[in-house]
Fold these 2 entries.
Entry 1:
Amino acid sequence: MLEPKDFEQISGIIEKTFHPIEYRLKCVEEELGGVRKELDGVKGEVNGVKQELNDVRSEVGGVNQELNDVRSEVGGVNQELNDIKRSVAGVEKIVKDVQLTLENETNRNIQIIAEGHLDLSRKLDEAVKIDNEKEILKLRVNRLESELEKTKSRLSEIS
């Protein structure tokens, strides 16, 4: 049987054996406390990253909305551009029609009028020429009448 002394010895041995284990356990607890603090720091950082990620998602949502708005505006601009192209095509057709009218009708009519004016100008030149000749003939007739009068007067003097 065991005596109290034996129990004391066993207790001392157990105490010696458990003392390093107890020390190690305290070290592990301290390390665990440090790990917990680090883990809390990491959790805080992860929460910050989550918040930043949510902010980025929100900004991306805003950018997507703005991009959709820009796409909508570009669609409107494209529609307006197509309308302008159709208008320009209509104006080009009108200009081409006016150009053809000028070439086929107006220019011909101007040529006909110009030819008529040319004929009128020739006739006017002829009339002016005849008028000039008429004036020259009147002057000649006046001179000849004067000479005839002189000649009559000399003849009457002579006779």
Note: The chain is about 95% helix and 0% strand.
Entry 2:
Amino acid sequence: MISFPRNQRGATLIEVLVALLITAIGVMGAAAVQLNSVKFNQAAKFRSNAVFLANDISDRMRANRVVALKGDYDIAIDDDAPTGTGAVAVDLREWLGEVALRLPAGDGAVIRDDTRFTIRIQWSEGRLEKTREGSAPSLQTFDFVTEL
């Protein structure tokens, strides 16, 4: 039978446990990095959608410039979509529908100042944020300024 010095008994077991602990911490760190990556990717997708949607209504207004300059495209956050059958009503209804579809709790506004338009898009990233219990998630806002 092999005899081990008294002070080395169990040393290998401790080394294995330490290696296992270090590996477990590394795996948990990698999982946290992956989770944050998914979260930031989703937030970037929302911002990209906001840019796309702002360009969409901007192009619609450019196609109907005279009417846009009269203020027919003006709409505020929380306003209902127009119900008419005219080109402006259809444009705004389709656009607000896309904003609501592509962004969580999404809403949009068109604010006119002479020939300068601010297109504001808001949405909630509530699923992605850590909020205190009872507090509402903050709204993200994207403003796109253009001139016709």
Note: Helices lie at 11-63, 65-69, 87-102.
